[in-house]
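To the wet lab folks,

You asked to see what we're planning to order before we commit. Fair enough. Below is the target structure as C-alpha cells, and below that is the sequence we designed to fit it. If anything looks off to you, flag it before the synthesis order goes out.
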C-alpha cells in the first residue's frame, strides 16, 4: 500500500503567491534601452582608418624606417574589418 503525502491547508505551498498572476503595473521594472550601433558611424571610422593608412604609406615613402608601412598595414586591416562590421549590422529591408 502506498501512502501519499498531503500538505496541510495552511502551508505556504498551498497558498498562491501574491503578484505572480497579475500583469505588470505602472511600477513595473523597466529595463534600460540598449544602445544600438548604427552602420554609418562605423563606415566613417573605417574611412578615417583608410585615410590614416594612406598617410602611413606616404610617410613610409619619405622617411626611412619600418614604422610607416606597419601603420599603413594595421590601419588598412582595421578599415577592412570595420567595413565588414558595418555591412553586417546594416538594417534589413
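Sequence we intend to order:
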Amino acid at each position: 500500500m502506498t501512502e501519499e503525502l498531503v500538505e496541510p491547508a495552511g502551508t505556504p505551498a498551498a497558498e498562491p503567491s501574491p503578484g505572480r498572476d497579475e500583469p505588470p503595473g505602472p511600477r513595473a521594472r523597466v529595463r534600460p534601452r540598449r544602445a544600438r550601433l548604427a552602420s554609418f558611424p562605423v563606415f566613417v571610422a573605417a574611412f578615417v582608418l583608410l585615410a590614416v593608412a594612406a598617410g602611413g604609406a606616404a610617410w613610409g615613402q619619405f622617411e626611412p624606417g619600418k614604422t610607416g608601412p606597419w601603420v599603413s598595414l594595421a590601419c588598412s586591416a582595421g578599415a577592412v574589418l570595420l567595413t565588414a562590421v558595418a555591412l553586417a549590422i546594416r538594417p534589413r529591408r
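Structural context that might help your review: The longest helix spans residues 39-62. Helices lie at 39-62, 67-88.

Thanks,
Computational group
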